[in-house]
Amino acid sequence: MGLKILHTADWHLGKRLDNFSRLDEQRIVLDEICEIAEREAVDVVLVAGDLFDTFNPPVEAVELFYKTLKRLAKNGERPVIAIAGNHDSPERIDAPDPLARECGIILVGLPHAEVTPFEIENQFKISKSTNGFFELRLDRFKQPIRILHTPYANEVRLKKALDTEDKGAALNEVLGESWQALADKYCKTKGVNLLISHLYMMNRNGELLEEPDGEKPLKVGNADIVYSDIIPEQVQYTALGHLHRAHQVGVEDRPVVYSGSPLSYSFSEAGQQKYVMILEAEAGKPITYTKVALESGRQLSRVKFNSVDDAVEWLVANPYHLVELTIVSDTFLNGDDIKRLYTAHDGIITIIPQVTLGDKGEQANVKQVNLEQDMQGLFRDYFKQRNKGQEPNEELMDLFNEILD
Q1: Three-state SS at 149
Q2: Which entry of 24, 132, 232, 303 is 20 to 30 Å from 157 by CA?
Q3: Per-residue pLDDT tens digits for 78-91
Q4: Residue 272 carries which DSSP code?
Q5: 105-108 sheet: strands from edge to edge
Q6: Which helix (H) or strand (E) holds 315?
Q7: 30: enclosing H helix or E strand
Q8: pTM, entire model
Q9: Alpha-carbon torsion 186, 187, 192, 197, what sign?
């Protein structure tokens, strides 16, 4: 009988899009992930980092996190393994460890940590554990499940955690040697061998992958890039977090996979389909996986219109989107226009006014400033000079006059 595993990552609980909270959407999409785990009857769940969006997440986000893990773990029937990402406080992730173990939840905050062995009677146990590795034994699955784990840490912290004597050694060399030593020692006999990590990983000589807008970058120059070819051959599947687009790197028969985030968290992700990965695993055989599409969450859209009327019509027709809206016009938007837009839609994140250039002859006329004119005339000339010949509208002039008064 094969083993079924669910791989997800980058929940970013507590995330906001500018000032717009995503917590309600996160509740819905995590509920969907729990339902997928039940429908697919998965045996193990992997959550590959960036569990929260900040080191100090809001109380509601913390509550949602633990309730979701408890639900995924089915009160100890199903092991859930969650590691820290670069947005997480490793100490916060490690803090509830004794209580989490009682529910079948395995939390790993720091790199090269040793997970405390424990057993859930008639369900599963951690049979072996050392720094950066543990072995699971499920009562319903005869083969051992070996898990190499490396939560996020920067280059200096990783080398310290791995007790590297040569401080100038490349990160790839340090990680590769550590993973290989663990695989050689613990993955000799038949079992399912997995690696879970939160890193910027790519194929050697492959295309550099974009990190999401607003994401704390892991790739600083080339020092923090990790290459997929350092993963030991014994590892059948590598579950990654950090990049928000679901995709595979590495070779086909030993997948190295970013599950991606469950929601689009920046407008650079607009239009992306989101997934969780469902793995089917057996000892000594290549692991296969399928993408299961997530349907929850508001779609992010970047749209551009040449009139406020056209924009309002689109907004009314697409009420569930979160919108970055560009309005192309030969005048600046006035208060009434802005009010119409926000009244038409509750998900406008940003309005970008794109003012077209005025007449070139008009621009030439503002080069010579008449210092004998009144304050309103000076302001008009200043405004035109700063805005490529564009005249201030009446509302702006009224505001200027109010300030003068």
Answers
A1: strand
A2: 232
A3: 999 999 999 999 89
A4: -
A5: 105-108, 80-83, 44-48, 3-8, 275-281, 288-293
A6: helix 308-317
A7: helix 23-39
A8: 0.83
A9: positive
